[in-house]
Write a structure and sequence with these properties.
The complex is a heterotrimer of chains A (381), B (260) and C (326).
Chain A lengths: L6 H17 L1 H10 L4 H9 L18 H14 L1 H8 L5 H7 L2 H12 L5 E4 L9 H4 L3 E5 L2 E12 L6 E7 L11 E7 L5 E5 L11 E12 L3 E2 L5 H37 L1 E2 L2 E2 L4 H29 L5 H31 L4 H9 L9 H13 L1
Parallel strand pairs in A: 1-4
Antiparallel strand pairs in A: 2-3, 3-7, 4-5, 5-8, 6-7, 9-10
Chain B lengths: L2 E4 L2 E3 L22 E3 L1 H17 L3 E6 L5 H10 L3 E6 L8 H13 L5 E5 L10 H8 L3 E12 L2 E7 L4 E8 L2 E5 L11 H9 L1 E6 L14 E7 L8 E2 L4 H14 L5
Parallel strand pairs in B: 1-4, 1-6, 4-5, 5-11, 6-10, 7-10
Antiparallel strand pairs in B: 2-3, 7-8, 8-9
Chain C lengths: L2 E5 L2 E2 L2 E2 L1 H17 L2 E8 L3 H6 L6 E6 L8 H15 L3 E5 L2 H14 L3 E11 L2 E8 L4 E7 L5 E5 L15 E5 L10 E8 L12 E5 L9 H11 L2 E4 L1 H5 L20 E5 L5 H4 L7 E6 L6 H4 L2 E4 L2 H17 L1
Parallel strand pairs in C: 1-4, 1-6, 4-5, 5-11, 6-10, 7-10, 13-14, 13-15, 15-16, 16-17
Antiparallel strand pairs in C: 2-3, 7-8, 8-9
Helix pairs in contact in C: 3-4, 5-9
Classes of the chains: A alpha+beta (381), B alpha/beta (260), C alpha/beta (326).
Chain lengths: 381, 260, 326
């Protein structure tokens, strides 16, 4: 048993922290207010190698592990969860290419992500298909000669509007009796005719991150855009979710840590009844609880990531990390806002943003409820 | 252009309440975060910039424990070629005089055209190790430098003087230069840099390897006691809600005749 | 009888304030300990400098040479080394200035004498001295003693001692020669450069709104500009802002920037490092805004506001505009 990060991992943490602290605070409020993002920050991050750290050296990435990815995500999220997502999720879905794509696809799609020359996304959710991915996904891809013709729509797609290519979860065999064999993953370049993306506004949090609804109207892509085997889409999706649930958990830990850091600063400075807030036990208990929950959450994240890096995907553990950290972040940001009182309720305070940013970690990449079902299935059979 | 840069790891103390240790000889550091000394960060960057322009090798050196290697790895990740750590045990037994002797001894055996140190370290604010080294090594030196240009084997330097004045000098190489903040814009550490750093040489040597003993390094200055700043009357605080504060503020300005 | 050496610092024909401050401290110690004060002037055409301080030292030693026209640490070192060898002064005081910071460390190695830098006080104790200095940017003070030696070197922070005359002295002025040509010089002076020239002269402003590291990000500086505009004041800043290239050097207040003397100096997000405060000693009133109640600036400011500048500055601005309107 060893709870120390390696030297290289510690250096990565420091580098990520320095970059985030140097670049994010300036813009976080603006991006949140305007629901905007500046691609220059993403480019800078990519130039420094923070994007697609899991991409292997053959494809021009640093080939780092899940744990390193989590470390970076946590440090970025502490400074601003929205910008963290906008930057680090720019290679979202590349996990599928790397695991299931052909050599040609890997060479084509992976290096530009690392270099900051292309943004990727993955499209699963539909207006009427959220958690029931296999059962309700209706977007279709029909083979015609050397092409697939795609029709349908997708909803809440991260990077939908800014991506250069999106890997899409589509029905290729709707009549297959096995519901988990009805879908495939197909890559769609966003400049294809018939593809449209509509940037969605009004999100509660992580407003620097692009979310879009997509429509596919007879979008034709070459058959070679099929990633992995025909009918293997659900498996591939689960592979991605298993990895990205850990990342979302790391995002939640970072968000919660920011809430704790803000709270500590505030309660040491602000006085009430002629004493600093930090002298009241009701405040002290909150701080102590936040610390222990964050520490517990982080240990879950680290272990889940560490096991992935050892080659063992532990669904139950990943689900536990995701569901615990999501709930924990929501609880911690709530407590932080409570400790800030009226100040916390105001838009210009960071805790208010954190409070709004936290909630998504309970929703995307598998809701808290889905994660609990996964654990229960594992535990109860 | 071979450049040796001496670096130090220091605690971050801004916005932190410092606590004096039991012996009253220093501060408690177990709860503090550590970084590369700000001045040294500029020094490393400057060395790398010169290397990128003129070729050569950049070597980073520190005297300290294994934890202090962190700043060497950072230097390597930024672009230094190799690093040396002098493991001298507990370095609190040395003063700047001793540290400069150790560093000078290490530098002596290295190829170099320039030696850089930061002007100051953020912890003890002594500001003497660099120039002491220069004297040990009988090197030309320039202090508080905010600009360097290399011209035919000489360095044209601008030293920062008081009152917004600079002093331009021509220094024959080899020379030691103490680097002032603001001379450049230090780069971020990249992931690729960290990866490369892992493959670069980080040599550890001890005092015996250098033929040095405590006897030759015994301190000339002794910290008798450290303490928190004595209480002073300090500022009269304007308190209350922002509106009240603003009113009081305007009253002061009006009284002083800077507001109609 | 023991001696205290004071190395006179002068530039472009003027004796720098630090010289008077060191002479004050040397004079005070000399009175207490029955020592004598010896001022040492190295330069060219420096007779008038000696006259300036002739009532502040017991002895003034002048080295006048063409080659001493510009400061050169190596030449200074060699000459002062020789003097120290001859006279063995108990104390040698050097300004903790750019030049002093180059001279003192090499002199210390050359003479093998202990050195304490940036001292803010010196107290005699059992035939030796205790130097008081600061660490961690003024957050911690320390008392330094010296290992047994034939004297010690100290560099003195500018602005901590009075510039006044102390006691009654009449200096014997001694002109000395030194074979300056024998010293190999491998560093040559080119010129002084004005690093802080610009179209705004903060030294003439009556009201300065100065911004420091606490502003966090470049774009937030507009907040300070707006406040300055509302007040009809001028924007200035501390060193980190210039290091980051957010504002030009000519707006910098402090040791390496300008010394200012406004009626009111408003310091926003400035922690109050002594290098900065040294430039504000001429200010009538200092009002500091900082979120850290322990920031050193509150020790020297007249008025303090402990709050997040992002909260308070907009309120101030609005209120001022309101009052001005009428």
């Amino acid at each position: 048993m060893d709870f120390e990060l390696s030297k290289e991992q510690k250096d990565i943490v420091k580098a990520a922290k320095e970059f985030a602290e140097g670049e994010f605070p300036d813009r976080a409020e603006e991006f949140d207010r305007d629901e905007s993002f500046d691609e220059a920050i993403y480019k800078k991050a990519a130039d420094l190698g923070f994007v697609g750290t899991f991409i292997k050296e053959e494809y021009e990435g640093p080939g780092m592990g899940m744990l390193e990815y989590c470390l970076i995500f946590e440090e970025f999220a502490v400074v601003d969860p929205g910008i963290a997502v906008a930057i680090l999720i720019s290679s979202y879905g590349a996990e599928i290419i790397q695991a299931f794509g052909s050599e040609e696809q890997k060479k084509k799609y992976l290096p530009p992500l690392v270099k900051g020359e292309a943004v990727m996304g993955a499209a699963f959710t539909e207006p009427d298909a959220g958690s029931d991915l296999a059962g309700a996904t209706l977007t279709t891809a029909v083979r015609e000669g050397d092409e697939y013709i795609i029709n349908g729509s997708k909803m809440f797609i991260t990077n939908g509007d800014r991506a250069d290519y999106l890997i899409c979860f589509v029905q290729t065999d709707p009549d297959n009796p096995n519901r988990h064999a009805r879908h495939s993953m197909i890559m769609v370049e966003t400049d294809r005719e018939g593809f449209e993306a509509n940037h969605l506004t009004g999100k509660l949090g992580i407003r620097a991150s692009d979310t879009a609804e997509l429509s596919f109207n007879n979008v034709r892509v070459p058959a070679s855009n099929l990633v992995g085997e025909l009918g293997n889409g659900f498996m591939e999706a689960m592979h991605l979710f298993n990895l990205d649930r850990i990342i979302v958990a790391a995002q939640a830990v970072g968000t919660a840590r920011a809430a704790l850091e803000e709270s500590i600063k505030h309660v040491k400075k602000r006085t009430s009844f002629n004493a600093p807030l930090s002298s009241f036990q009701s405040i002290q208990f909150k701080i102590a609880d936040m610390f222990s929950w964050i520490q517990a959450g982080r240990n879950l994240v680290y272990e889940a990531a560490w096991r992935v890096d050892l080659g063992a995907i532990d669904h139950k553990l990943i689900a536990a990390a995701k569901s615990f950290c999501g709930q924990m972040a929501v609880k911690c940001t709530d407590m932080a806002l409570q400790m800030h009182g009226g100040y916390g309720y105001l838009a210009e305070y960071k805790v208010q943003r954190l409070f709004r940013d936290a909630k998504i970690t309970e929703i995307y990449e598998g809701t808290t409820e889905i994660e609990k079902i996964i654990m229960a299935k594992n535990l109860l059979g | 252009m071979d450049i040796v840069v001496c670096v130090k790891r220091v605690p971050l103390t801004e916005e932190v309440d410092l606590v004096i240790d039991e012996q009253k000889k220093g501060i408690k550091k177990d709860q503090l975060a550590f970084v590369l000394n700000d001045w040294d960060n500029y020094a490393i960057e400057e060395a790398i910039i010169l290397k990128e322009k003129h070729g050569g090798e950049v070597v980073a050196i520190t005297v300290g424990s294994e934890d202090d290697e962190e700043v060497l790895r950072r230097s390597l990740a930024m672009g230094a070629d190799r690093a040396i750590r002098v493991d001298a045990g507990d370095i609190r037994r040395f003063d700047s005089f001793g540290i400069s002797k150790i560093l000078a001894r290490v530098v002596k055996d290295l190829p170099y055209d320039l030696v850089f140190t930061g002007v100051l370290a953020d912890d003890d604010n002594g500001g003497m190790v660099g120039i002491m080294m220069a004297e040990e090594l009988k090197l030309n030196h320039a202090c508080m430098v905010t600009a360097i240009e290399i011209e035919d084997g000489k360095a044209r330097t601008t030293s920062e003087l008081e009152g917004g004045l600079g002093e331009a000098s021509l220094v024959e190489l080899p020379a030691l230069i103490t680097i002032q903040t603001g001379i450049n814009e230090p780069r971020y550490v990249s992931i690729l840099g960290i990866r490369k750093a892992a493959k670069k040489e980080l040599k550890i040597i001890n005092l015996a390897d250098l033929g040095l003993s405590d006897e030759k390094l015994s301190p000339k200055t002794i910290v008798e006691e450290v303490y928190l700043p004595p209480e002073t009357e300090g500022a009269q605080m304007l308190t209350g809600d922002p509106d009240t504060i603003a009113s009081d503020f305007i009253e002061i300005l009006t009284k002083k005749g800077v507001m109609e | 009888m023991s001696e205290i050496f004071v190395i006179v610092e002068h530039r472009l024909g003027d004796t720098r304030d630090i010289t008077f401050e060191m002479l004050w401290k040397a004079g005070e110690l000399a009175q207490k300990l029955s020592y004598t004060v010896t001022a040492i002037i190295l330069g060219h055409d420096v007779k008038s400098l000696a006259e300036n301080i002739s009532d502040r030292a017991d002895k003034i030693i002048i080295f006048d040479d063409e080659r001493l026209k510009n400061f050169n640490a190596d030449i200074h070192k060699e000459i002062i080394y020789t003097l120290i060898q001859e006279s063995k002064p108990a104390l040698t005081l050097i300004g903790n200035t750019s030049w002093g910071m180059e001279l003192a460390p090499c002199l210390s190695v050359k003479t093998d004498l202990p050195l304490a830098t940036d001292c803010i006080d010196i107290t005699p104790k059992d035939n030796t001295f205790i130097a008081q200095r600061q660490m961690f940017n003024g957050k911690i003070f320390s008392n330094i003693s010296f290992a047994k030696s034939e004297g010690c070197l100290l560099t003195i922070r500018a602005g901590v001692f009075p510039k006044d005359k102390i006691g009654d002295r009449k200096a014997q002025i001694i002109q000395q020669d030194f074979p300056v040509t024998d010293i190999p010089v491998k560093k040559s002076f080119i010129e002084f450069v004005e690093t802080a020239a610009g179209d705004v002269d903060i030294t003439q402003a009556e009201l300065l709104i100065s911004v420091g590291r606490g502003i966090g990000e470049e774009e937030n500086i507009s907040l300070i500009k707006e406040l300055a505009e509302a007040l009809g004041g001028v924007v200035s800043c501390s060193r980190p802002i210039v290091d980051k290239n957010w504002l030009p050097k000519y707006l910098q207040v402090g040791t390496s920037g300008k010394s200012v003397s406004p009626k009111v100096y408003i310091a926003v997000g400035i922690s109050g490092a002594f290098q900065h405060m040294a430039g504000t000693s001429g200010a009538g009133v200092i009002i500091a805004v900082n979120k850290d109640p322990k920031a050193p600036i509150f020790r020297t400011a007249d008025y303090g506001i402990v709050d997040d500048l992002f909260k308070i500055v907009p309120v101030l601005k609005d209120k001022i505009l309101e009052v001005k309107k009428g």
